Amino acid sequence: MKNDRFLRALAGQDVDVTPVWMMRQAGRYLPEYRNTRKQAGDFLSLCKNPELACEVTLQPLRRYAFDAAILFSDILTIPDAMGQGLYFSEGEGPKFKKLIRSGQDVDELPDINIADDLAYVTDAVALIRRELNGSVPLIGFSGSPWTLATYMIEGGSSRDFSLAKQFLYDSPEAMHRLLSKLAKAVTDYLNAQIEAGAQAVQIFDTWGGILTSSAYVEFSLTYMKEIVARLIRESESRKIPVILFTKNGGQWLETIANSGCDAVGLDWTIDIGQARQRIGRKVALQGNMDPAILYASPDVIRREVASILESFGRANGHVFNLGHGITPQVNPDHVSVFVEAVHEFSGLYHSL
Amino acid sequence: MKNDRFLRALAGQDVDVTPVWMMRQAGRYLPEYRNTRKQAGDFLSLCKNPELACEVTLQPLRRYAFDAAILFSDILTIPDAMGQGLYFSEGEGPKFKKLIRSGQDVDELPDINIADDLAYVTDAVALIRRELNGSVPLIGFSGSPWTLATYMIEGGSSRDFSLAKQFLYDSPEAMHRLLSKLAKAVTDYLNAQIEAGAQAVQIFDTWGGILTSSAYVEFSLTYMKEIVARLIRESESRKIPVILFTKNGGQWLETIANSGCDAVGLDWTIDIGQARQRIGRKVALQGNMDPAILYASPDVIRREVASILESFGRANGHVFNLGHGITPQVNPDHVSVFVEAVHEFSGLYHSL
Fold it and tell me: Nearest C-alpha of chain A: how many angstroms from B248?
């Protein structure tokens, strides 16, 4: 591999500069993405077309010196494959035609077969790997079981997740059956991505942070641990690292770091130096600039990058990222400033 | 005062049972509130009418054995008094006609005079105190400077607060001028509420938790500390306790507890027993049941109340509350279950 900084950092090994990628780096802030999406017709058609998914995955790498590519897809492909009828209504985010509202709904959910039902994802992974041609590693991903369950119950995004929480508190057994089913599907899905060529995987637990700390462990982290334990952890003679990202999970950092994962993704509300102190060298850390800082001036972006690098200090095991996905209104030039600042300023903290 | 449990708990004194109140306890989940609001015409007219504001403040106390009343008002009365033109559009929450988008906008904001501009609030406080007639203490409140600033810049609620953050990062001096002006107004506002009869005050920092930890200290906590230092802290020969509530502030608990406040309000994402361990007896703690648990069955509500009481344990300094405001769809009968469970189960942990 020409550039393996990302995998080296996840393994806690020496690097020349801190590797950087961005959650949602293939996305609406890029005019070329918007063109390809228009060509595809809509968002879901873009996800389901391996050639176009490959194209948008590669677009940010043509502009910026990112140290990893991430599969372009949606986090809700699994419930869609289960027949829940995923669609996107303009300005409202993802929606489902069918909803999970009872234990019976859970029991009627079909088991899915990744090779049949999600071949468009594994085909995209294989194609992207071929096109990357060893330049940078490819990250596969999935939503966490809890995060998928919230969308399946609420029918879309939610302000207070009242339906998902009512289901959790009133029907904990049915919720556990749903989460078990999703954990099995996520495991198969990520393993299929690894077999198709993904060299690292990230689990996005976007909504774990809305739970109480005990409910987080019982209904989200437990299932992510189960997945981590069952993943293929080596392929092509390299370790396949697993990153867990729980938004608003800073309070539970030690518990997350003990899940068996290789790295914890941090949102921007935690100081990365304090996070490093709390967990030592147990796992690598990924993050954690506030994505809103990309709206600020280049000087401010550079200052914030420098401040995060300084807080992390002279240690291995840091993958630079935003604390959440980049937003559509960001000026693409600001992303250059961000990526270049990470590479320029981080040499100081490494001895390779 | 007939029932001073709330004030005793805030002072870390012995109580017979744990006192309880609920953020947004006067609100849309109550049919009598919806009737009064209809009578007022709209939400803002209800806030601005002292008799009707008094009526809705008292409504939950007629139904439930709450240990405190909280002034019914809106957190955005100060920017409204500054001429920003607060209005409410159905289903979309608060909006402002004028926006703060530059340092010049900040400098043109008028200084307000509470006695003239917010007499409807202090009149309501005086009236509620008279009507309460010593039954339970009355809590006054304000939004925090940072939280007020986010609404004034964004023009309403926001998904990612990109405008407020851009202002903060690109124009930190102008942001500090805005926050200073708001801190002065909030101080005068809370002191006027205390002079009119409020026996405790709470500062709602609803949006502090969206900042990085260093920005939280610089742009939110600093101004809340400044306010706390300038509040009237004794009235009618009793101490006036101050509660700071930062939603998603669990990671910064120690820093918040060192602000000079008497109590820290906790959202539901933190275990209250761990919070108690982290800060010792320095301040009282208020919270922290997930408001979504009120959607669950009575048994689940009772179990969660018991679990929070057990986690806090045999110690003084706990005011029971939700971790955020009650939501409109809650069944009013579930609130009875909640309040009664707190009183019934907490006797075990107290020796009075």
Answer: 8
